[in-house]
Amino acid sequence: MNTSSGTPYCVGLHEVALPPGAKAKVTSTYAGLHDQDKGPARWDTVVASLRERSDAAKAKDSPRSDRTAELYRAAGANPQAAFSNSRLVGFDTSGETAVIAEHSGPSAAFTIEAHRVQDGRHYVFEGESSQASRYPAVRDGVFETISRYSPRERDTSPPANAFCTANGYFRLKDGKDVAGDAQLVVTFPDMPGVSFSLSIYGLVEPSKEPAFAQRVARDLAELTQLGGQVKRLHEGEREYGGQTGGMVAISVPSEDRGVGDDFKYFWHAAGRPMDPYKPEIEAELLADGARGIDQDALDALWNKLMGGFQLRGGAR
Question: Sorting pLDDT into bands at 50, 70 and 90, what band is 299?
Fold first, then answer.
């Protein structure tokens, strides 16, 4: 998606102001679901296709076999509860929303899809689960989650208590909603070789990754051992997006072209578990073989991007 001047780009519960012409792509997961916009469609056509698919899956044998049943019993699980009697785990409709679940392989895992037609467009929500006996609870959770979804509207900012995804947003459910995960990747046509990314992770518990300082020290040591002449450009704590985190920027001589430097700017905030407004965040600006682009230009781009990264208006 190309961005226009003056329109902040929504990602998770945050927004970031992107330069005109920047190309942005978001991938996201909320409540285990990925959303897709499949384009214009009629509900009767969509549901008819899903019914045919449901009938076809129901006619296929269950992945449960004597061997898999034996393995599940050995592990203390009930194979009757783990598997459906066919490839179809379940198919249900509610209004103009349908949910279909199918075993996707030889295990008790199953894929689940929700299909919804809203304002004449077909939206698909994909996820995974396991144990066929859990399908009713999973299905009900998916129906409830999708009831809080709205498509994106051009030049309109979603509510402050909504988690932005690739094609829309989910309103947060309650105080126990930790939101979801999202990644924004941005490229700049007028700066070939330069890319920017934001990764946002809703936390149920503290991250098990090594501390930021440890990771930076390890990465710099590896670069030095490989013969890289690492130059530290910036280092220390910075506050962006409502959180304080560690930041480092480095340059190394370009290996591919033998001239100029490659640059990496990185910032990390650890976040706070069970707080959707304080997710774990990683921001990265890379310049790999970007000819004619120096540190001053990258400093200015980093400051513009991260200076415009914030919680959306009204979010605490």
Answer: very high
Judge contact between 282 and 198, C-beta under 8 A: yes
Output the 3-class SS for 222-262.
HHHHCCCCCEEEEEEEEEECCEEEEEEEEEEECCCCCCCEE
**Interatomic CA distance for residues 264 and 16, integer angstroms:** 19
Enumerate residues 6+ apart whose C-beta is below 8 A from 57.
86, 87, 88, 100, 102
| Six token digits for residue 289 | 């073989």
* Residues above pLDDT 90, as percent of the chain: 62
Distances (CA, A) of 291 to 190, 260, 263: 11, 7, 12
Task: Specify the CATH number of the domain 191-311.
Answer: 3.40.1000
Residue 157 has pLDDT above 90, yes or no: no
Phi, psi values for residue 278, rounded to 5°: -135, 65
74 with 204: CB under 8 angstroms? Answer: no
CA 272 to chain centre: 18
Residue 211 has pLDDT above 70, yes or no: no
Instruction: Sort 59 into a burial class: Cβ within 10 Å, 0-12 / 13-18 / 19+.
Output: exposed
Q: What is the average pLDDT across 191-217?
A: 81
Residue extents of the structural domains in the chain: 35-150, 191-311
pLDDT tens, position by position, 160-182? 899 999 999 999 987 678 889 99
Higher-confidence residue of 216 and 120: namely 120
User: Phi and psi at residue 29, in whole multiples of 5°?
Assistant: -140, 130
Pairing of strands 168-171, 121-130: unpaired
Longest C-alpha distance within the chain, in Å?
66
Strand partners, 101: 90, 112
d(CA 302, CA 308) in angstroms, rounded, equals: 10
